[in-house]
Amino acid sequence: MNDKPLKTNAMKTKVFFIALLVLSFLCFTVVAQTGQGPSKKISLTKKTDTQTQTAQPGMRGSGDPTKGLGITEEVPDELTFGDYYAFIIGIDKYTGKWPTLTNAVRDAKTIEQTLKSSYKFDHFKTLYDGDATKANIVTELEWLMNNIKENDNVLIYYSGHGEYNQLMDKGFWVPVDAISASTLDLLSNNDLQAYLNGIKSKHTLLISDACFSGDIFRGSAIQKEFEDTPKYYREVNSMASRKAITSGGIEPVMDGGSDGHSIFAYWLLKTLNDNKKPFIDATEVYQSIMIPVINNSEQRPEFHPIKNTGDAGGQFIFRKK
Question: What is the 3 state secondary structure string of 7-25?
Fold first, then answer.
């Protein structure tokens, strides 16, 4: 009997099982290196590192293991922005009991010029000196409430006198036509909060260079810690924000300072003018001005979300031209 065909078949079977074992080993190696299941692709944004890695599923903890390496999830290259509106108020020449200021209008107009020349703003509304009546300020705030769209960005800058009513424990803006310290003539921080809540923008930032401005921060609020990464900017741009930077807390602040500006306005302008990055957000601006203002005056700038106005943890982003 010829058993050659049986030996041949046995040899083929042996080769088949060896190949199957090799293939299984290779598959196991690939799985061990890449992890199982679906994963998100992440890219290295630093020029010195162009590899790609795979995010490990099932990791716990709030820390980002890629922080500091410039590693971000792959997302669209461009951020989506609505229109940018600036409402700027500056008052020097008061008609009532308050003394004339020397730098408020210059500060406000220089802020306007800086934003127009260096940053991407689409619309400007300004009230200087005699135009900055209580009625006109309220009219413009109401216009913003009625016309701003949900993806737009609003910057409100006020430079002028502030007033504090101890009996009410409330701070106020002082319009140019305020005759006395009666609350009938003033614009309270509570009213400002209501207007900010009514402006349905994606991001609203109030910058107030006036005495007692910090009264607008009533109640505690938290915000996301700043990170200088593309992922951070995309995240804070996607969430609504209602924040304020003030030149001080519940205290008087200086009119004079450096280079013909208040101490607060000087460092704010320096920060905006010195910035070379395509984006700088409100947190970065505040961090740049806080220490030099404290070290060169008796006032302490503040920066917080404005309680009960719709802040969701986002940030107003200044976009460089």
Answer: HHHHHHHHHHHHHHHHHHH
Query: For 191-206, how does the pLDDT look when each residue is reduced to its tens digit (9 = 90+)?
Result: 999 999 999 999 999 9
Contact 282, 315 (CB under 8 A): yes
Strand order in the sheet with 241-246: 123-128, 84-90, 153-159, 203-209, 241-246, 302-305
| Residues in contact with 83: Cβ distance below 8 Å, sequence separation at least 6, in sequence order | 122, 123, 149, 152, 153
Query: Which helix (H) or strand (E) element contains residue 35?
Result: none
* Closest among 319, 92, 311 to 216, alpha carbons compared: 311
In the structure encoding, which two tokens stand for residue 273, read together? Answer: 């003018």
CA pair distance 271, 1, nearest whole angstrom: 98
Both tokens of residue 301? Answer: 């700038």
pLDDT one-digit tens code per residue, 100-147: 999 999 999 999 999 999 999 999 999 999 999 999 999 999 999 999
Q: How far apart are CA 210 and CA 37, in angstroms?
A: 57
Question: Domain range for residue 195?
Answer: 84-319
Cα–Cα dist 161/64, whole Å: 45
| CATH number of residue 120's parent domain | 3.40.50.1460
Domain for residue 153, yes or no?
yes
pLDDT at 69 over 80: no
Range in 19-33, 61-75, 132-146, 304-318 with the lowest mean pLDDT: 61-75
Nearest by Cα to 318 from 157, 172, 198, 209: 157
Q: Is residue 272 part of a domain?
A: yes
Could you write out the DSSP letters of every residue in 279-297?
EEEHHHHHHHHHHHHHHTS
Q: Which residue has the tokens 């400007």?
A: 124
Domain-embedded: residue 125: yes
Q: What's the Cα-to-Cα distance from 67 to each of 70, 236, 264, rounded to whole Å?
A: 7, 16, 33
* Residue 47 belongs to some domain of the structure: no
Q: How many domains does the chain have?
A: 1
